[in-house]
Amino acid sequence: MDPLTASAEIDLDAFAANVDTLRAHVHPAAMMIVVKAEGYGHGLLPIAAAARERGIEWLGAATPAEALALREGGDTGRVLTWLYGPDTDLTPLVAADIDVSAQSEEQIARLVAAAGTVERVARVHLKVDTGLSRNGATVDDWPRVCAAAVEAEETGAVEVVGVWSHFAASDEPGHPSVAAQLQVFRAACEVAEEIGVRPRVRHLANSAAALLLPEAHFDLVRVGIAAYGVEPAPGLATLAGIQLQPVMRLRAQLANVKQIAAGTGVSYGHTWVADRATTVGLVPLGYADGVPRHASDLASVGLDGRRVPVRGRICMDQFVVELGPESTAKVGDEVVLFGSGSGGEPTAQDWAAVCDTIGYEIVTRIGARVPRVYVARVDVEGVG
């Protein structure tokens, strides 16, 4: 897509400001910036470069392909990856000096084999399930996993760098699972230590816990969505006493402007019919670009300091907005689907609210054919 027609503007200065704010907030714990899913839709390598520019030691990448892409892009710092299948070859990760999560004796054995193949020590973070019921060793299996890791470490095949877990509901202040998971994690760390595990870092806190739960910070916190200026849940940044700056601004030019008569139906199915003569505009983005179809007839966009409503169904490549009977808008005028809100435009959270979803989904779903345009003082050509 022509970036003049539509683009996602990524403000890396805002990202840097968020990183600085959050790092000060979680001090003295270290901070990992999670860059999975193409940097939450903002661009993997430019976001990684901006994070390293701010002195961030740790990056988090969900999949091995993401972690290896960082290395291929020139990144040489610490990277943790954690989501892989039983047939995934772990050898390239060990060869690239990437930290790998393990939750079972079988995964540790695979890392030992990979270390032998490339003649390099495998760096491992042991994951325990404290109550999310996704990845992680169960409490019953945890001692055996720790023992297997210690045995592998004694042979020189692996280094146990971390012990970690993940919260289920840290974005819901007062949720009873939070205290329960903290207790399980502390106990798991004690069990690991008794068996002989001596990790450099213990990490449990995600963005919400980084904001609100200092008792969960331990040695390292993993910050994802908050670094991109989107709250894990509405109001959490205010509760924490900090301000975050949205990093992504999704905008487009009007591709068409026309007047329609009262009684005219708009878009597929005519789910909206004009009740007056009015002017409509065509926005050249659609659900193939990540604009949620279920925002049809619900969302709005920003235009010249005001909001104009989406009318009719959002299509694969485009949707219609009502500009109003007295509108003087013309083809080429800019509309903003979401941004910081400072110019009257909706935010990603506003779109999330009308779609009954979370801000994470709004920014991460913006598709690859939407150009990312970077606005920043930092170098975004590579990663350092």
Describe it.
- Pathway: Amino-acid biosynthesis; D-alanine biosynthesis; D-alanine from L-alanine: step 1/1.
- This protein is of the alpha/beta class and 384 residues long.
- It folds into two domains: 216 residues, TIM Barrel, CATH 3.20.20.10; 128 residues, Lyase, Ornithine Decarboxylase, Chain A, domain 1, CATH 2.40.37.
- The chain is 30% helix and 23% strand.
- It contains twelve helices and 19 strands.
- Strands 8-7-6-5-4-3-2-9 form an eight-stranded parallel β-sheet. Strands 11-14-17-16-15 form a five-stranded antiparallel β-sheet, with no helix packed on it. Strands 18-10-1-19 form a four-stranded mixed β-sheet.
- Helix 8 links the parallel strand 7 and strand 8.
- Helix 6 packs parallel to helix 7.
- The longest helix is centred in the middle third of the chain and has 20 residues.
Major sheet strand order:
8-7-6-5-4-3-2-9
Shape: elongated
Question: Termini distance?
Answer: 29 Å
Main sheet characteristics: 8 strands, parallel
Q: Using the CA coordinates, give the radius of gyration.
A: 24 Å
Q: Remind me, CATH topology of the largest domain?
A: TIM Barrel
- The total strand number stands at 19
Residue fraction in strands? 15-25%
Domain unit count: 2
* Poorly predicted runs of 5 or more residues: 380-384
CATH architecture descriptor name of the largest domain: Alpha-Beta Barrel
CATH-wise, what's the superfamily of the largest domain?
Alanine racemase
List the total number of helices. Answer: 12
Which structural class matches the secondary elements? Answer: alpha/beta
Helix content: 25-40%
Mean pLDDT equals: 96
**CATH secondary-structure class of the largest domain:** Alpha Beta
